[in-house]
Amino acid sequence: GMLSPPRNVPELLAPAGDRECLAAAIANGADAVYFGLDTGFNARARAKNFGVEDLPGVMRLLHRHGLKGYVTLNTLVFDDELAAFGEVVRAVAGAGVDAVLVQDVGAAMLVRETAPGLALHASTQMTLTSAETIQLAERLGMERVVLAREATIDEIVAIRKQTAMPLEVFVHGALCVAYSGQCLTSESFGGRSANRGQCAQACRLPYELVCDGKDVDLGDQRYLLSPQDLAAYALSPELIDAGVNAFKIEGRLKTPEYVAAITSHYRRAIDTALTGQPVAFAPRDVEEMELTFSRGFSPGWLAGIDHKMLVPATSSAKRGVRLGTVVATGRGRVTVELASNLAGGVKRGDGVAFDCGRTSDDAIGGRVYEVFADGVSRTDAVTRGRVDLAFAHDGLDATKLAPGQAVWKTDDPVVTARLRKSFSGELRRRQPVDLEVVARAGEPMRVVATLACGRTVTVHSAEPTQVATRHALDETVLREQLGRLGATPFELRGLSATVSGNPM
Fold first, then answer.
1. Rounded CA gap, 437 and 453, in Å?
2. What average pLDDT score do residues 282-295 get?
3. Is 47 helix (H, G, I), strand (E, B) or coil?
4. What's the longest Cα–Cα distance across the chain?
């Protein structure tokens, strides 16, 4: 039969707002990370970001572990900033950065001129939504395009048929109510331009709806511009089949625990999809992702346009996992009817929040001190039925609570500790290396090492190899000796040996 073409293997790209996030991405299976610099020119000015002087060290760390590093220079650049921008570009190129993301056409041309060898990626801020717009990116010498987040899978398929340009697509994280790269809300409300990294997140505020001069009663729907978060893990097979070359996770303002959880789950989603299996996560997996940050998960626009689904309008805050509903309060305890589909449940030490105001942002919360089920104090997690939650004496103002209010689990110390462990201490991430050994008696021994990315290095022994009197060299001995790579970021994968003349 015919050989099927090799599967398109997408790069998994994780955000890094600081050092810990960088470690979390490396440890949890990212293929690349993207980050901003504290010199500005970066659409997330509020992230910690990295100093230009940190760049060489950051890039060495990433490259040692087999990752690529991209720098976001993705704001609009003003005329009086061009000289400073040029300086940053030179520093970035000198530090071995693998690509820069830009939205400003003039900035792209300046990068080409200043650092011709530096790869350019078109930021999602360029609002590229069709093969026709991608032609501009091609003319600018772009090597990759991050599509606007509004594109559906059907549109991505159509774009892929008309261009050979590598395509990157957001698969997880916050969405914006405005068209990617075209938001002027923050600027017009308060003079803070989203295109200059200063977004004030006006879309996350509560609004009232006035129609023809009359107030419209929307009940508890007040967050009229706040989309749910994107979570496209189940669509991984379709995105791969559509020819998407990179899966991007949003979140340069998020915690390292978020980076760890989301990266590891999408690593698994991609690896599963590549074996041809459907990607179905257990409820516990989804809850773990929700715990680190969630405004509710949705497929965004990827499955098509469905605004009612995308903007339920009842909340804009980070929620975590929905635990259930308040049934009663009294005697310093809160009785909660647990949600029917709960995986992780509730236990001592969990952080919880109650919706008890007109808006979700008026939630009050605390740490659970004790959990009672059927009157018995439980040390394990309870996942169904009714529970009584007790809080430390000053832990919660129960007078604000009332039956019917929603209860959310906002933190699970066990999950948080496990995620932290993945990126603290030594980074346990190894690059596979293939070795080719030539050992002929009387000649220096030669070893060629090759990484997955194709980079190679060749070493020769200082002395010619001797003929063995007792123990001759064979592949088993070579594999054992050369496989001792414990203190390095490498692990031995393939070994091919040419041994002749019975060398020792």
1. 20
2. 93
3. coil
4. 100
The full DSSP string for 344-398 is S-B-TT-EEEE--SSSGGG-EEEEEEEEEETTEEESS-B-SSEEEEEE-TTS--G
Question: How far does the chain reach from its first CA to its final CA, in angstroms?
Answer: 46
Give the C-alpha separation, 482 to 478, whole Å: 6
Between CA 169 and CA 176, with CA 173 as vertex, the angle to 5 degrees is: 85
Kind and range of the H or E element at 407?
Answer: strand 406-411
Contacts of 383 (CB under 8 A, 6+ apart): 338, 342, 343, 344, 345
By C-alpha distance, which of 58, 64, 37, 62 is closest to 48?
Answer: 37
- Non-local (6+) Cβ contacts of 176 within 8 A are 149, 183, 203, 227
pLDDT of 115 reads: 97
Give the pLDDT score at 6. Answer: 59
The overall average pLDDT reported for the chain is 91
How confident is the model over 386-399, as a mean pLDDT?
85
What is the value of pTM for the model shown? 0.90
Structure tokens at 58: 């950051």
Q: What is the pLDDT of residues 471-489, one digit of tens each?
A: 778 888 889 999 999 888 8
Rg (CA), the chain: 27
| Helix-then-strand count for the chain, H and E | 13, 23
